[in-house]
């Protein structure tokens, strides 16, 4: 992270939390961020389930904590029962939206083309898209990791996207929620491949932040976040406890 890229630690709460839990968690993170103030070594973002976005937005108001959605629809409005638009997220104070998470790709059959359309919608609404990519265990075992990731990058980021509009999260599917993580060398290999691809597709694309996600926890955050090509983390399970999440934020190297 010696690069000038401002690190980002992003929480993905997934489908967890009723109102009281979510507000308490947001308040606990916000209080820590507020007292860290200028010593914060990066940006901190929470992505609650859609039902809690409004309440969490109020809970973090006036603190450095940023707000993200976990998904959005590709269209701006209309007959899409159960969906929410990028503008709706923005309206509640979100600045970011996670798109193409492996759980959406696997459980909802989202394709690269659909993710790309959502990224375009996020751009149009003024949201930064956190675009997730990652290989399955079978793809890694068959030596296809880099080809899969490059294909996802090409397919999921629309032409014309600019550096300020995109964050990429590398989340190996087999490392999500499993406690298993790639080796540091494997993380570096993939992040470098992503960086090279972004640089070749987007003007100034090597400045796009690339987060690592998949079983990030306090015990491995220091070594992962110290890697030069890792610009932060996307954290699932460990983001549901303020102490654990904050231990990960605190593992960021000081600039
Ligand atoms: P875990 O941190 O629980 O492995 O989840 C990672 C993830 O999917 C974040 O988006």
Provide a concise account of the structure shown.
By secondary structure, the chain is of the alpha/beta class. The chain contains ten helices and eight strands.
Describe the 3D structure:
This protein has one domain (8-34, 41-241): TIM Barrel (Alpha-Beta Barrel), CATH 3.20.20. It has helices at 19-36, 53-60, 86-91, 102-107, 112-125, 137-141, 145-156, 184-201, 218-225, 242-250, and strands spanning 8-12, 43-47, 66-69, 96-99, 128-133, 166-170, 209-213, 232-235. It is 41% helix and 15% strand. With 255 residues, it is α/β, with parallel strands linked by helices. The model has no long low-confidence stretch (mean pLDDT 97). Strands 1-2-3-4-5-6-7-8 form an eight-stranded parallel β-barrel, surrounded by six helices. Residues 12, 101, 171, 176-177, 213-216, 234-238 line the site of 1,3-dihydroxyacetonephosphate.
Arithmetic mean pLDDT: 97
Total number of helices: 10
Low-confidence stretches: none
Rg, rounded, reads: 17 Å
Quaternary status of these chains?
A: single chain
Secondary structure category: alpha/beta
- Estimated share of beta-strand residues: 5-15%
CATH class reads Alpha Beta
Estimate nothing, just give the exact number of structural domains: 1
What is the helical fraction, as a range of percent? 40-55%
End-to-end distance, in Å? 8 Å
Q: Any idea what the CATH superfamily is called?
A: Aldolase class I
N-to-C SSE string, H for helix and E for strand = EHEHEHEHHEHHEHEHEH
How many strands in all?
Answer: 8
Shape from CA axes? globular
Largest sheet: 8 strands, parallel, barrel
CATH topology: TIM Barrel
Looking across the biggest beta sheet, what order are the strands in?
1-2-3-4-5-6-7-8
Bound molecules: 1,3-dihydroxyacetonephosphate
CATH architecture identity: Alpha-Beta Barrel
């Amino acid at each position: 992270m010696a690069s000038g890229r401002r690190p980002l630690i992003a929480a993905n709460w997934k489908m967890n939390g009723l109102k009281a839990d979510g507000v308490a968690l947001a308040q606990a993170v916000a209080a820590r961020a507020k007292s860290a103030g200028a010593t914060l070594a990066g940006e901190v973002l929470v992505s609650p389930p859609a039902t809690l976005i409004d309440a969490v937005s109020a809970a973090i108001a006036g603190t450095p904590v940023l707000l993200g959605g976990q998904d959005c629809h590709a269209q701006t409005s209309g007959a899409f029962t159960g969906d929410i638009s990028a503008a709706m997220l923005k309206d509640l104070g979100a600045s970011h939206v996670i798109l193409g998470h492996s759980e959406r790709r696997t459980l909802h059959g989202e394709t690269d083309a659909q993710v790309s359309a959502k990224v375009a919608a996020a751009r149009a609404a003024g949201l930064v898209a956190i675009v997730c990519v990652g290989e399955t265990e079978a793809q890694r075992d068959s030596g296809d990791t880099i080809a899969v990731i490059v294909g996802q990058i090409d397919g999921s980021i629309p032409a014309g996207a600019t550096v300020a509009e995109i964050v990429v999260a590398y989340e190996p599917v087999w490392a999500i929620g499993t406690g298993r993580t790639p080796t540091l060398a494997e993380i570096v290999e993939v992040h470098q491949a992503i960086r090279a691809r972004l640089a070749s597709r987007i003007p100034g694309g090597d400045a796009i932040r690339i987060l690592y996600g998949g079983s990030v926890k306090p015990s491995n955050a220091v070594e992962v976040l110290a890697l030069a090509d890792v610009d932060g983390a996307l954290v699932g399970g460990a983001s549901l406890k303020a102490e654990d999440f904050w231990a990960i934020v605190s593992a960021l190297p000081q600039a």
